[in-house]
Specification:
- The protein is α+β, with helices and mostly antiparallel strands and about 450 residues long.
- The chain has two domains: about 110 residues, 2-Layer Sandwich (Uridine Diphospho-n-acetylenolpyruvylglucosamine Reductase, domain 3), CATH 3.30.465.10; about 220 residues, Alpha-Beta Plaits.
- The chain is built from 14 helices and 20 strands.
- An eight-stranded antiparallel beta sheet has the order 15-11-13-12-18-19-17-20. Strands 5, 6, 7, 8, 9 and 10 form a six-stranded antiparallel beta sheet that branches.
- Helix 10 runs antiparallel to helix 11.
- The chain is globular, with a radius of gyration of 21 Å.
- It binds flavin-adenine dinucleotide.
- Flavin-adenine dinucleotide (FAD) binds next to strand 3, helix 3 and strand 10.
Length: about 450
């Protein structure tokens, strides 16, 4: 098997590591690699930090394993290989009236990556995360054995693998339940809100009426503008209410248009002034309205700008995503925001969502509120994030592993206390020699000792 030695990173471009990368076309080749190396599976590298890096072994990409295997038009059950992406699913199935029941904010994610991070969408509080729609998967173990895992078969491995960050084995195929839709459009209601009190009230008020909800917050504004935000609430449009023009478009193949950030922008152009201007402009332009929005614009606005991570310069960005329990969620998020505003190194708009419960052992979600923010990597940012960690810990919250690049082992083990130990029992049972490992696993102590 040939390896390419390249400097690799996640989507945040921080950290970077020299890794040996291979793109096996099938199981035989992964087994060959496993004989003499430790391995971390990789999809499209849309995790932000070091989850799919392994500078002490091999990074094994799933991208050639991208075939659809079967689809049942009656039940909406799809079987496909792990390298199939959300984009593949959407391009093939929306026109046939089926949609992924849970989708992250980019369609450049593989099914293997979606299972390993147990990704969530804007509907987590209503339907849970991706694993809720994963019926079963086939996984290649370190021993070379292939197991079928589901809620009833090898269920310990099923629950350790969803959200398990690729550390239990290589997911080869999955069986996924799709959702029936009657149109590619959503009805979106935008509500412009002055502060966090208004936001938390509205989230409660509209909880049951809308399948999707998410708020974009200006986390640079201070004083009377502190906590201002725009709440977006959505439902799949059933089709009958659509104007004729959109009904016609729904029946045609969708062709997306993109613009690109062609090179890394020098850091000086992305400073407090430009970020403040961007956040203000977004808030000012927002209007209270109800409109029909195509799914591509609704779910994947950032995908319209190819390589948008380039705007954060060569040093990259840290995406910090926390989840805090519901009862004191507002108080915790207020403390976090005050620290970010005081730091003044704030990011573009932050995203706040309501979360429900989840069963995966290391799955990020639990009933509460999640906030995600981007920070350009620069002086003081890591120290500030470490202070945020302390607030998250104080409120019994946790950070999302697929976004993380800076947490230390002690903080991780406090945040996932009681969970990482349980996960480790299963890891030792199926991978006692720690063949599946990554830079993230070594940083957080997710390796058998
Ligand atoms: C713009 C943007 C928006 C996003 N929005 C959201 C969001 O709304 N919600 C959310 O939950 N996430 C979100 N994410 C994060 C993203 O969904 C996850 O990081 C996802 O896991 C990336 O999938 P990938 O295929 O790129 O996997 P990679 O980034 O390559 O890998 C991620 C993890 O999956 C493991 N993995 C990959 N393939 C396999 C396999 N075949 N077998 C076993 N393990 C495997 C890797 O080892 C690694 O631990 C977003 C990311 C971006 C860039």
């Amino acid at each position: 098997m040939k390896f390419e030695e390249i400097e690799l990173s996640g989507f945040g471009k921080y950290p970077k590591a020299k890794c040996k990368v291979t793109r096996p076309p099938g199981i035989f080749d992964i087994n060959e690699v496993l004989k003499n190396n430790s391995v971390i599976p990789r999809g499209l590298g849309r995790s932000y930090g070091d989850a799919s890096l392994n500078d002490k072994g091999v990074v094994s990409e799933s991208l050639l394993m991208n075939r659809f295997i079967s689809f049942d038009e009656e039940t909406g059950i799809l079987r496909c290989e792990a390298g199939v992406t959300y984009k593949d699913l959407l391009d093939t199935f929306v026109i046939r009236g089926w949609f992924p029941a849970v989708t992250p904010g980019t369609k450049y994610v593989t099914m293997g990556g979606a299972i390993a991070s147990d990704v969530h969408g804007k509907n987590h509080h209503n339907v849970g995360s991706f694993s809720s729609y994963v019926i079963s998967f086939k996984i290649l173990l370190a021993s070379g054995e292939i197991l079928d895992c589901s809620r009833t078969e090898h269920s310990d491995l099923f629950w350790a693998t969803v959200g398990g960050m690729g550390l239990t084995g290589f997911i080869l195929e999955a069986e996924i339940q799709m959702k029936k839709i009657t149109s590619p459009y959503l009805t979106n209601r935008s509500i412009k809100l002055k502060n966090m009190d208004e936001l938390f009230d509205k989230l409660e008020e509209f909880d049951k009426d809308y399948h999707y909800s998410v708020a974009w917050m200006d986390i640079v504004a201070s004083g009377s503008k502190y906590g201002r935000n725009v709440l977006l609430l959505g439902n799949h449009e059933e089709g009958s209410g659509l104007p004729d023009k959109l009904k016609l478009r729904s029946a045609k193949k969708y062709i997306e248009k993109k613009i690109s950030v062609p090179f890394e922008v020098p850091f000086t152009t992305l400073n407090k002034v430009s970020i403040t201007l961007f956040n203000s402009a977004f808030y000012m332009a927002a209007k209270n309205k109800i409109e029909f929005v195509h799914y591509d614009k609704y779910f994947y606005p950032l995908d319209f700008i190819l390589n948008w991570n380039h705007i954060y310069s060569k040093s990259g960005l840290i995406q910090y995503q926390l989840n805090v329990p519901e009862d004191k969620g507002k108080e915790a998020i207020d403390k976090v925001l005050k620290k970010v505003v005081a730091f003044g190194g704030g990011s573009f708009l932050a995203v706040l969502k309501k979360m429900g419960d989840q069963d995966g052992i290391l799955s990020f979600p639990f009933k509460g509120y999640t906030l995600s923010m981007d920070f350009p990597v620069k002086k003081g940012v890591i120290a500030m994030c470490k202070e945020l960690d302390q607030i998250v810990l104080e409120y019994g919250g946790r950070n999302y592993l697929t976004k993380d690049s800076i947490m230390d082992e002690k903080t991780f083990k406090q945040m996932y206390s009681g969970l990482w130990e349980k996960w480790m029992d299963t890891k030792i049972k199926y991978d006692p020699e720690n063949k599946f490992t990554s830079n993230l696993a070594r940083r957080l102590g997710l390796c058998p000792s």
